[in-house]
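Entry type: protein chain
Record version: 2
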Amino acid sequence: MRQLRYNMIHSKAKCMMETDRNHMRKSLALIAIIVGALAMSAACSPRSTNRGHIPPPSQLEKLKIGQHSKSYVRNILGAPSTVGTFDNEVWYYIGRRIEQWAFFRESIIEQKIVAIYFNDLGKIEYIQRYSKQDGREIEMVGRKTPTSGRELGVIEQIIGNLGRFNKQASQ
């Protein structure tokens, strides 16, 4: 009788343990699915970044046309993002807010440019503000510029380099 009672209790406990294991596996699977879904949804949310520096209006108000020099502007606003390509008398402070969704190409949401023009004496001539709407897209040309000479294959390059090494320089 004792053996029968022991077997019944043991089999009941074993059955409960298997039920607990199955319940635990289902719970872990559900947690893994929820965590995976959250991770995927976080990866799909837009990533917004700010690049560059746009001086705040309070700093720009300190600049007086015809009075302040380049060194004063540099002390107030910091170094410019870039200077004019053909004329160093224009300083540009450029700032952008860029957004990217997952693996898609990033897009410019907002762009502001402050251009400070200087006269020949190095004093502020005028200040101009530009936005994204003032810009224009420039298409890249797909043509290639041919170069003179002949193209060498991989083996020709390897063989051509044999003997070109200076033995005295390596010692």
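Comment: The chain has a mean pLDDT of 81.
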